[in-house]
Amino acid sequence: MKLKKLVGLSSALAVSVMPLVAQEANSVELRKQLEELLRIQRQQAEQIESLKKQIEILKGQPNIPGAKVATPEPKLADLEERVAELDAELRRTRGKRFTASIGMVGDFVGSYTSAGRDKTGAARPGGTDIRLRTAEVSFEAEVDKFARGNAVLAATDDGNGTANVAVEELALVLTAPNDFTLRAGRFFGDFGQLSSRHEAELPFVHRPLALKRFIGGESKTDGLELHYDFPFERHVTLAVGAGNQFGEFQNAPGAFRGLNELNYWAHLATELPLRADWTLTLGVSGLLGDRGDSRNGVLVQPDASTLTEKRRRVAGLDWLLRWAPEKQQRRFEFGGEWLYSSGNFLFDPDGSLDPKRAAPGPTGDEVHGGLHARGFYTYGAFSFDHRWTTGLLFDWVETLANVPWEEQRWSPYLTYRPSDAQLWRLQYSRTQRGAASRLVDEHAVYLQWTFTLGRHSHLGHSH
User: Fold this and answer.
1) Tens-digit pLDDT profile for residues 448-461
2) Distance of alpha carbon 139 from its chain centroid, rounded?
3) pTM (predicted TM-score)
4) Which of 89, 283, 407, 422 has the lowest tally of Cβ within 10 angstroms?
């Protein structure tokens, strides 16, 4: 029995060791392949350097009429062609070793709100709410010597427990002479201070009210954006772009869309050194957008009339004051943005265009008119060290409505970063709305948890 047990134990041990041996063999083989790849790259680099020296010698020979020049073989053209071939081969072997950087972000938000969404007009239910706000997977790599590219796939909770996956970004950044760069594809346009940031990257839990109301959340677009760094002593940049949308909703193209019906935007910014450890960044932005029928759809007012946006114009002024001593971990920043929106709307007094009606349609009483609204947000944040930050956000906005009302929110928050790859944030928000809105005020507490796997980036962002 003892012999049988010993044989059985030996067999089990052999079986359990086999995967380890195989794994070790694979590791040894991978190391050999990597060492061979590095050896080939070193040889190619040495050959390129030797051939380049020969080319320099050939180019440096004096051109004396009638003199016989001893030209070593191969000839100059052949050498240059060989160098180009080796450069291409070296890039291919490097491509086998270096792939696109990949990262992932998970962003969870738990909350408790004092009133239900039927009374507050919120998109999420009141009371207790826990959700995966967004999950993002990003890819970034060098396309060639002229461009870098990135792609971001995002899954966003639709409010019913389902996360719909969409292409959030897919763009190239191309370098050009004279300090120009060009972004092309799907990206977040450069407007103001926070429009081009995802919600997981904001300094607080929620996007400010004015940005949601006037921009439509994140400044996503499909189009082109040109950046220029002015050759001034102080850092001055200009971004101008054009795209089929700007914000959450696309413009309704109708049967035909002209160039004048695209969205056009610009952002001019500069950084000013004030005194020791203090800097001030200032920026101005502008947005022109026609055919905005579908940006908000038909807006049903408290008196049952409707508004349909046809055109929007948005201007903004942003600022960021920073104190960042070099030899200290403490930091302070005071930032914000002021926005002014001027929209053209179709006003329907009897509400016949309300899509919830049995047979919505015009009745002849509709009129066009302009509506104007303002909004701003400002926040201050102090970092005790690289882990703890406390701050206060205040944001205020007027509605684009025929019955105007205001909404304001106070939000103190505390952020803790156990590491560079993880964030916990506790925030309280007190939201007050005007009586004309027929919505109640609310108190809410939020707990945000965000983590990053790998290297997560958004190529070309201004922040």
Assistant:
1) 999 998 876 665 54
2) 13
3) 0.74
4) 422
